[in-house]
Design brief:
The protein contains eleven helices and 15 strands. By secondary structure, the chain is α/β, with parallel strands linked by helices. The chain has one domain: Rossmann fold (3-Layer(aba) Sandwich). α6 crosses α7, α9 runs parallel beside α10 and α10 runs parallel beside α11. The N and C termini lie far apart (about 45 Å). About 45% of the residues are buried.
């Protein structure tokens, strides 16, 4: 049943209030606010200081948010996107939360890295920036997005060869017959982070049915990926949804299905607005370990994101 927009907004608000609890007002306000824009500086193309200087010469008051991350105020987003550094692929615009999530995987030189749901490619570029001499495999299910991923890598002049696979990660991963030291699962989700309370159109495709459908896919992808993780390896699971059905419930399911893995702290700095994963949702109680996962909340420079970090025991 497709609810009217006002009813959808009321339902989404009630669910977010139950999830965010005392952080609800903060999260709700920033969902509708204009946030700073960020971009990843690709170190094989240009140095941070050079990128910053070029942007400032163009009248864009950019700052370094972090190593290899430039930030501009919301009102300068369009200028950033149209700048030659972006157009030519030396700087890649992406949410800061996405950069943080990719960095939590912490690949090293010589690692075997899998990006299980890779398009459009920003998190993959962030991984390559961390470890340009690792070996990368990237999977994308949707053909149009697969070609987008390929073009992003080509325009970025990525310094390493990436093995690209078109197909559903649930079926492709077992066929690879490989064990990866590092895996990123940026799972397809209901994209609740993109909902804007003041814009009913952003709720057009949102529904509880979609949440359930995405959760089913997420469970399959995460279990397949964990089974392909090498002993001692790390896997980061990410969604841009608030929904516990897509987050805590998927993580708890994976812990039950793959008992040789455990959750580890994600290692967020204290200035990132975040809260621990829930210990329960409705009739569901989650293992205590699930609270190692975190919800990054929307803020002046962050977008909503759920992150869990798994380690496979040796």
């Amino acid at each position: 049943m497709n609810l009217p927009a006002d009813d959808k907004l009321k339902l989404f608000r009630a669910r977010l209030e139950a999830i965010a609890k005392e952080r609800f007002a903060e999260a709700w306000r920033w969902l509708d606010a204009r946030q700073a824009a960020h971009a990843l500086v690709l170190p094989w193309r240009i140095r941070d200081e050079e990128a910053l200087a070029e942007l400032r010469r163009a009248g864009i008051p950019a700052e370094l948010r972090d190593a290899r991350v430039v930030a501009v105020a919301a009102e300068h987003r369009a200028q950033l996107l149209s700048h030659p550094l972006v157009q030519e692929g030396a700087v890649y615009p992406m949410a800061y939360s996405s950069i943080l999530a990719a960095r939590m995987l912490a690949p090293h030189e010589g690692a075997e890295v899998l990006d299980a749901c890779a398009a459009p490619g920003g998190k993959l570029l962030a991984l390559i920036a961390e470890a340009p001499r690792a070996a990368y495999t990237a999977i994308e299910r949707v053909r149009a997005r697969f070609y987008k991923l390929s073009s992003v890598l080509a325009r970025a002049h990525a310094p390493t060869q990436v093995r690209l696979k078109l197909g559903d990660a649930r079926r492709v991963i077992p066929r690879l017959s490989m064990r990866f030291t590092h895996i990123l699962v940026d799972a397809p989700c209901s994209t609740e982070a993109r909902i804007r309370p003041g814009d009913p159109d952003t709720l057009a495709h949102w529904s509880l049915r979609k949440i359930r459908e995405q959760a089913r896919k997420q469970r399959g992808i995460l279990v397949a990926a964990l089974n392909a993780l090498a002993p001692g390896g790390a896997l980061v699971y990410v969604t841009c949804s608030f929904a516990p059905e897509e987050n805590e419930m998927v993580v708890a399911h994976a812990l039950a299905k793959v008992p040789e893995v455990e959750l580890a702290p994600v290692g967020l700095s204290e200035d990132v607005p975040a809260m621990p994963a829930l210990d329960r949702w409705g009739k569901h109680r989650f293992p205590e370990a699930v609270q190692q996962a975190v919800r990054i909340l929307p803020g002046p420079w962050t977008e909503a994101m759920f992150v869990a970090r798994f380690i496979k025991r040796r």
